[in-house]
Amino acid sequence: MNNAKKKRLEANGWKVGSTDEFLNLSPEEASYIELKLALSKALQDLRKSKNLTQVDVAKRIKSSQSRVAKMEAGDSSVTMDLMFRSMFALGASRKKVVGMLV
Amino acid sequence: MNNAKKKRLEANGWKVGSTDEFLNLSPEEASYIELKLALSKALQDLRKSKNLTQVDVAKRIKSSQSRVAKMEAGDSSVTMDLMFRSMFALGASRKKVVGMLV
DNA sequence: CAAATATATGTCATATATGACATATATCCA
DNA sequence: TGGATATATGTCATATATGACATATATTTG
């Protein structure tokens, strides 16, 4: 994990150690966070591929633009449940969704 | 979706329509729930393949046996985040985890 | 460039998930 | 069988996620 990624993680509310780089980020936590970031990226890619705005997505899932923005940013305050739901709401199949996480 | 599955869903706290079978369960909700159930099954399979008890898993993720049981039951009160975290805590790789969801 | 449109960030009150606990039920095995 | 071990179910106080809102900052378009 490079420094830019670490900065992005910290910016999104993840605890990635202060003095030392990320020794206190266990492998399993790292895997989880990286999968979640992949999911947030997948959601954004999917939305863009359909030429939809965050407001459009928000309407479909009865949420708000700000929450969609947070999903796409991989913010620590959003669950993967909401992200998966959003992708399905955009018409993606399970195969498609899972495929975007490989 | 057959009746047995519906019963299982309802038992786990999912709202799957009362009078009519499951007309009020939109395709995206169905996809989400089915993915989550696949994940709960994957977690259980993984645990059993390692010959661990729910208590063992609970210790590794600093949770409780009851919560692990709920994860494996696909209970509506548990997030996919916790399930993914658990699988990673059992040593599964992202490739492995994602592969179990295909 | 400026206006319009899109996205990001911060905060709140409320809803939901969490670990913990008690206890019920199932499964194992001597 | 019955005691031991494992899993399921229900509940609670607390922690965290949620939609909504305001508003800041980009990005597009004319």
Structure report:
2 copies of one chain form a homodimer. With about 100 residues, chain A is mainly α. Chain A has one domain: 434 Repressor (Amino-terminal Domain). The first copy, chain A, contains 6 helices and no strands. The first copy, chain A, has helices spanning about 5-10, 25-50, 55-60, 65-75, 80-90, 95-100. In chain A, about 30% of the residues are buried. The model of chain A is unreliable at about 20-25 (pLDDT under 50). At the A-B interface, helix 2, helix 5 and helix 6 of A face helix 2, helix 5 and helix 6 of B. Chain A binds a DNA duplex (30 and 30 nucleotides) through helix 3 and helix 4.
Keywords summarizing the entry:
homodimer; 102 residues; mainly alpha; 434 Repressor (Amino-terminal Domain); 63% helix; globular; DNA-binding
Reading off the top of the CATH hierarchy, the class of chain A is best stated as Mainly Alpha
Largest sheet of chain A: none
Quaternary? homodimer
CATH superfamily of chain A: lambda repressor-like DNA-binding domains
The CATH architecture name of chain A reads: Orthogonal Bundle
CATH topology of chain A: 434 Repressor (Amino-terminal Domain)
- Helicity of chain A, as a percent range: 55-70%
- Topology, number of strands of chain A: 0
**Average residue pLDDT of chain A:** 87
Alpha-beta classification of chain A:
mainly alpha
Low-confidence blocks of residues of chain A: 18-23
Shape of chain A: globular
